[in-house]
Design brief:
This protein has 11 helices and 14 strands. With 349 residues, the protein is α/β, with parallel strands linked by helices. The strands form 3 sheets. It has an 8-stranded parallel sheet. Helix 6 crosses helix 7 and helix 10 packs parallel to helix 11. The longest helix is centred in the C-terminal third of the chain and has 27 residues. It binds phosphoenolpyruvate (PEP) and manganese (II) ion.
Length: 349
């Protein structure tokens, strides 16, 4: 850490900082400049945090040299994390991108859900995703079928072999949800629900963590850190668009820079959800392709058998024919990118 003291910091203020750092086992060197004293401190930041130091009298600024997340950091683990499922499906590394497909919320039409699942399976996607507990802005909107939805998903899994993903909103539901699904999703609104992060950290089920619409990439990685710190290292990050000033034509702004930025600083897999990011069907194909080009490890796409009658997010959901139409082109691009990366890593031109 580098601690910059205020212009008018007293000798006593400086001594207090230096002594506190030394007491916590830091190696400390202080440089008295013409105006500011700067203190270099090398040691274990879990014993005394930048936040605590910045509260001391006379401290102007505390700068960390290392990123505040550790377990999620590429410095700790240079190789990509690969999450492997019981059926051999892998997310992360240079594994061909994964398709997580399904309706925003599960309704009681099982045949419709199965149609989506079969289309996803035939297109080579690996996961069926559906909402059972829905975070809705309005209490008057459909809130989800809860366990009944999970039962319908389990039936679709039996018929297709697809792995299941669903959102958890309350840690009390977590054991029951984990009995049904292969991945739990933390929705964008709960990205900083630290109790929920802690709860999923304590279970073994892999987690898709969605970026909050108003959260920085660093906050996103620190949210992942909470899950990992509590014991679950199988975290998949999902960029799903952030709030910017411009929502004229799109629901959110898809921050595609997040993908290569996260990959630079973290070893965790990153997927992209173009459905919530754009809110528009016609943008799913171009933004899915763009996501793969910048290195996304997978895509999460909303598909419904009857979008006009979907109980949530029908406007952005693809119909099955639309999905079938675009997924071929997305997969073809994906295969090409995968092949190019394989060649690059093997040094073949
Ligand atoms: C969802 O995945 O259906 C959802 C509600 O997404 P988000 O949390 O990204 O808004
Ligand atoms: Mn949705």
């Amino acid at each position: 850490m580098i601690i910059i003291m205020e212009r008018n910091a007293t000798e006593e203020n400086i001594k207090k900082v230096v002594n506190l750092l030394k007491e916590h086992g830091f190696n400390v060197i202080d440089h008295a400049g013409d105006i500011h004293t700067v203190i270099d401190a090398i040691g274990d930041k879990t014993t005394i945090t930048p936040d605590r130091l910045s509260a001391l009298e006379g401290v102007k600024e505390v700068k960390s040299i290392r990123e505040p997340f550790r377990l999620a950091s590429r410095d700790r683990k240079p190789e990509d994390t690969v999450i492997e499922f019981s059926n051999g499906v892998k997310i992360g590394g240079n594994n061909p991108a994964v398709g997580i497909v399904g309706p925003c919320s599960i309704d009681s039409n099982y045949e419709g859900l199965l149609e989506v699942a079969i289309a996803a399976k035939e297109a080579g996607c690996e996961f069926l995703r559906g909402g059972a507990f829905k975070p809705r802005t309005s209490p008057y909107d459909f809130q989800g079928l809860e366990e009944e939805a999970l039962k319908l998903m389990a039936r679709a899994k039996e018929e297709t072999g697809l792995l299941l993903v669903t959102e958890v909103m309350d840690s009390q539901d977590l054991p029951m949800i984990c009995d049904y699904v292969d991945v739990v999703q933390i929705g964008a609104r709960n990205m900083q629900n630290f109790k929920l992060l802690k709860a999923v950290g304590k279970c073994n089920t892999p987690v898709v963590l969605k970026r909050g619409p108003a959260n920085t990439i660093r906050e996103f990685l620190l949210a992942a850190e909470h899950i990992m710190y509590n014991g679950n290292e199988n975290v998949i990050l999902c960029e799903r668009g952030i709030r910017t000033f411009d929502n004229t034509y799109t629901r959110n702004t898809l921050d595609l820079t997040a993908v290569p930025v996260i990959k630079k600083y973290s070893h965790l897999p990153v997927i992209v959800d173009p459905s919530h990011a754009t809110g528009q069907r016609y943008l799913i194909e171009p933004m899915s392709k763009a996501a793969l080009v910048v290195g996304a490890d997978g895509l999460m796409i909303e598909v419904h058998n009857d979008p006009e009658n979907a109980l949530s997010d029908g406007k952005q959901s693809l119909s099955i024919p639309m999905f079938k139409d675009i997924i071929g082109r997305i997969s073809a691009l994906n295969k090409r990118l995968h092949y190019e990366r394989e060649c690059l890593s093997a040094n073949i031109q």
